[in-house]
Amino acid sequence: xxxxxxxxxxxxxxxxxxxxxxxxxxxNEGCKVAIADIRQDAIDKALAxxxxxxxxGVQLDVSSREAFRIAADEVEAAFGxxxxxxxxxxxxxxxxxxxxxxxxxDWLLGxxxxxxINGVMTFVPRMVERVKAGTxxxxxVVNTASMAAFxxxxxxxxxxxTKFAVRGLSESLHYSxxxxxxxxxxxxxGLVKSYIYASDDVRPDALKGAMKPVDPAAVERLQxxxxxxxxxxxxxxxVIEAMRANRLHIFSHPDHKEEVRQIFDEIIAEYQDxxxxxxxxxxxxxxKFRADSFAAARRKSREADF
Length: 306
Description:
alpha/beta; NADP; NAD(P)-bd_dom_sf
């Protein structure tokens, strides 16, 4: 995306953490911005710091499809068509899968994965129709995953699952929307100065039945760690730069580069040189066709200038 001025952006989880960093940088680029967040008090505090800007707040539970539709209609009625979507809202549970409950799964999947799906399914068809009709030029979708989309350790198990899924969704959408001049990026930050350590504060009552008691000492330790997280405005600026370059993966933190390299080397090392099985040659011929097509799509993505 080359031109941000005058566009309308919709940012979920926009009242703090990565979200407020995205909001401030998009405003600096001349966008009109809607801050969507589940906490009205957090929205009010954020808006109070953004005087004399084209910005509005909308309370939203991203896990609700109907709430997303209503919020989208409200924002587009006030600010015009949304052509920048930042699916950023997220929550976390710092525990293993085997120590988790169905309520834990439903909560994190609802926010971290279904929230992204709901954002995409609400806004992307509108973007595509406007591009087809000639009333909109391009657009961009930024889905916030995490380095947890690459680093699948035992903790936090459900969070890892949701972020791997967001990464896969974003990579697929990136290639399918190239034809419309709509960019898609997946943001994979590391430690951020945010309040995600206090996610339990916004957990719905209906999904608290099987939750573990909150450990105040653990929350305090996590709070201390997040004090050393990257400033949201730094991340926001790096996202804008990546959007200009139509970059699929946004690695805001250089901290993990060597670790990711090691992990991919370990994955490649686990391939085995098996003898040919029946149907091998035909299967490989098909896979070459698929691989060549995907390589062409990646090349087109790298060469795209919109």
